[in-house]
Structure formats: structure tokens, C-alpha cells
Amino acid sequence: MNSTLWNRLQTIDRRIIYAVLLLFIIIPLFIDIPLPTYPSKQSQDFYDTLEKVAADKGNANKIVIVNGMWSPSTRGENQWQAEALITHLMQKHLHFATLTFDTQNDTVMQTSVVEPLAKKYGYVYGRDYVNWGYRPNAVYVITIKGLVTNIPGTIKKDAHGTPITSFAVMKNVKTRSDVAAVVDITPVESTETWLGLFEQNNSPPYLFAPTAVMAPTYYPYLDSGQIQGMLTGIKGAGDYEGLLHTKSFGSRIASALSLVYALIILLVIIGNVGHFATRAAKRREAS
Amino acid sequence: MPGHGAAYFGKLAFGLVVMFAILAGLQAAPRRSRKIIIAFFTFLGGLYFALEFFYPAPSGENFLTGYQPLVAGLGAVIGSFAIGLGVFSLVQLHLRTLSRLRPGWGYSIVLLVSFVAMTVFGLMNEYSPNATVIPTVGGLWQSQNAHGMFRFLFSGGLSNLGSATFSIIAFYIASAAYRAFRLRSIEATLLMAAALIVMVGSVSFGTALTAGIHPKLTDGSENPWANLRIENIAQWLLMEVNTPAQRGILFGLTLGLLATSLRYWLSLERGAYFDKEL
Questions:
Q1: Domain A41-247 class?
Q2: How many independent structural domains does chain B possess?
Q3: Contact state of A275 with B205 under an 8 Å Cβ cutoff
Q4: Interface test with A, best of B55, B202, B231 (most A CBs within 10 A)
Q5: pTM of the model
Q6: Chain-wide mean pLDDT for chain B?
Q7: Pairing of strands A179-186, A206-210
């Protein structure tokens, strides 16, 4: 092969890369590619922790707080994590409360995730779950702090303006000790506040569902046991769906991600083959 | 959801008048006095949080804990005024661009129309969701109420635009990885090897590559060769190599954050937004 060909390997037109990438993303969404799925340890821990929470009879009158900091921009990852989580909570008949500090999250979380699943699993608003609604990000810290000792006084009203004490699901929920678990679905930093101000001796369990790009930053908290399970981006959502035996869109996107990673690796290898071959050819010419 | 009724709007109007009076008073005060007043209230706010956190609370609460909802409410009010200031600046900037037909004025039209539409239909969705906003016109289209219009703008527009914008990053990452990842040095080689292992180990096709190595031996004991499964190597890299590095960064960041917070609290910070007027 001549050096021009090696050069071409290093300079593939970006439009070709974009077109191939688009195909690699779209095809798995329409054709089910039977790739074997192995849940990561963190996804397995996430699932196991909620299974333990559900199995504990003492949690029957407690709630799981689902904190959503995501908006439509990261729904490609966070929505499927949220969907798998809410499915699990409903399958296990765990009561939960949704809370958000992002202006767009409440609408997308309720209309795309909670309401359709509530219909499917017969969950009744106020009896089985409640929407604490949106709070401005300016009061994020003080709200989390307030939940420790006074949940009704901190939240006061649900997303529709109804006092939360009027709901059956909130009847026994007064302080942190009435919370069975906290699940944080987020594309932004929110963990430290929960761990620093809300958690006490890793109780209640804190579970984390970040976007994939954030995940490596939080391994120290996994190592210390402060985060007791983590869903890493869409891979985590796919793992979770697999563990729940409810494979849906998250699993398909996880397959697409698998192919996209394969393509990126292939492109990197091609680029490096071109790079080394060109360098070798130049050395030969020089000698 | 905000409250309803004349009493609610009366309280809202009163609150706005009081806040604007405070802001006007601050603006009229001599610069030195204004700085002292702001520094005093900044210190007071920080003092509450610090005392509430550090003051002993054997039963989980101390004498300051009960004021948390009040402080949260005050924080929300001040935060809301900051949003108002942001909106004012944004609209002012784009109106100026439009009036002078500066380059990119078309984008300003899009921003202003989108802003007004979302604000109007967002408020109508809260206060009169069933109000007809588009009447039926012959066989062309059916009537639409405020709630439907808001859903159309939010779910059909904003939500999809947000997702699409974020998704474009994937294309740039693929292209950038292809162009930038070259084995030019030992450091680059190590970085790329780690990246590839973690990438391969975290997706299905990668884990399928070493799925033939069974975690258990035929006698039920652990298979030592299972450590060579790609997902286990990736996990080792994340837990044993990444974690200490991240922990070190975290310590540094936290110490820096602590020092900066202290400077803010004691009004020692200098520069834009502090002692310099923009």
C-alpha cells in the first residue's frame, strides 16, 4: 500500500463517520440485536438494595424519595433509568414521592414516566405515591436539610397545591427515619448534599443514577459504601431492565450504545494503523 | 403550583412592592453603606447555616432547626428575584440586537417569540388550562385549549429540541475520538488502553468477548482466570486506579470550595460581582 492510502485512513471524511454512526444508532432501535447482557456490579447492587428495602416489613409505611434533577436534554439516559426504577418500585408495591429541583423535570417525569406506569400497575395518586413537585434550585440545600427532621413542614404542599399531610401515603412520613431509600436520578452534581446533609451512617440507602459521563467521579462514594448502588447511564438502565425482566427501550438503546462503542474503537484502531504506517513510510523515505 | 384567588395575588403584589422598595433603598444608599448592609446580611445568612449545622442537637434538632422552612422560603424569594434579573437582561440584550439589526438578529426573534409563547401558555396552563386559545377554523384545524398548547410547546418543542441538541454531542465525540486518539507517547498509550478497556467492559459486545471464561470452576470454587474477563478488568481499573485519583481530586476540590465559601461568607471576595460594579 502507498502512503496516500495510509493518509486516507487518518482523514476519513467526518460526514461518512456521522452517517455510519447514525446507522449504528438507528438500526438497533428497530431491529432487536440479541446481544448478551451482563449487569455491572453497581447495577446489581442497585437492584439488590431495592429488593432488600421491599423485603423489609418495617418499610411498609415508609416512602422512597425519587429526586430527579434531569431535563429533556439528558432523557436519552435518565428517562430510561427513571422508567426502570419506577417500574421496580411499583412491582414491589413500594410507596414513593417524586421531587425535583429542575424546572423541566416535573412535567417530563410525570407525563412520560410516572403517569403511564401508574396506569399500568394500578398505582393511585395520594394512596401509593405523591408528587412533591418542583422547588427552586436556590433552596436545594435547605430543602434536603429540612427533610431530615420535618418532611411535612419542609414540603408543605404537593405539585398541585394540596397539603401533603392530606394524603394517605404521607400519613406516617414525618422525618428521615420514615424514608426507606433515596434515589437520585441526575445529570448534575447533587450527591454530596444528600450524603452530607441527609444521610446518617449510610441510612436510608442512597442509590444513584447519573449520566455515564459523570459516573467515574463517584467511585470513591461507592468504595466507601455511601452510594449503595449505581446505574451508569443508559447501560445501567439496560442492566436494570434486564434484572426486572422488562426489556424495553432502554435495552435497545443499550444495544445501540454497544455498537457505537464498537464503531468508535474500530475508528480509533483505523486511525492509529494509518498513523503508524505513515510514520514508517516517512522513515523509510528518509533513510 | 402557585396559589389562586384575590388574597394570593394581593400577598404577591405586597411582597413585590416590599422587595422593590428594599432594592430601591439599597440602590439609593451610599456605596459604602450598601456594601456594609450586604456584607452584614450575607454573614447573617451564613451564620444561620453554620450554627444550625454545628450546634449540638442531641435529639436531631436544635433551637435553629425549626426555622429551616422560613429560611428556605426566604432563599426561594431571593432566588426568584435573581431569575427576574436574568430574564430582564436577556430580553433587553435581544431587543437591542433586533432594534439595531445586528448580525444574528433572526435568532433574537426566535428567542423572543419562544420566550413570550412559553411564558403566556405556561401561565395559562396554570390558571385557566381549559381556555380556548385557537378557535376551530372550518375543516383546517380544530380548536386548542391552553393546556394542549402548552403540551405541544413543551413536549413537542422544547423537550425534543433539548434531547436533539444534547444528542449531537455523540457525533462530535465519535469524530473527535477518531482524530485525536493517536498513540504518540507512553501516556497517550496508557490513557487509550484504559479508555478502550473501560468502554469495551461496559457494553454487551465487550463482555461477550470474554464470556467464555466462567466465573466458577467445575467444583464450584472461584475461577482465578475470571479476573481476566473484560468487565472485571474494567471494574478493577475503575475501582483501584480511578477511585484513588478521584478521591485526591475530591479532597482538593473540597478544600478549595471551603476556602472560597469562607471568602464569600466573610465578604472577602474581590473582583467582578463583588467590589467592582459591572
A1: alpha beta
A2: 2
A3: no
A4: B202
A5: 0.86
A6: 88
A7: parallel
